[in-house]
Amino acid sequence: MKKVVFMISILGMLLLGAVNTVLAQDEMSERKDTISVDNSDPVFYDAEEDAETKSSGNGLIIGIVAGVVVAGVVVVLLKKKKK
Prior knowledge:
The chain is built from three helices and two strands. By secondary structure, it is mostly helical. It has one domain. Strands 1-2 form a two-stranded antiparallel sheet. A hairpin with a 6-residue loop joins strand 1 and strand 2. Helix 1 packs antiparallel against helix 3.
């Protein structure tokens, strides 16, 4: 029983640690200035503007993982009480 709890906790920690790595895959290189086709003026992208339009879902992912871990612990405790 201790092995199951240990494996569930290790899996939960691995999932929490992997969230930032997975989300960082989108931002491999910095954006460069481009030329707009409409008026031929260079358009510079600002990191702050991009951060405002792109919402991060870290809280949701962490909440789901934490819920799964808590549910696993509850199931293990209920099975332990039945014995």
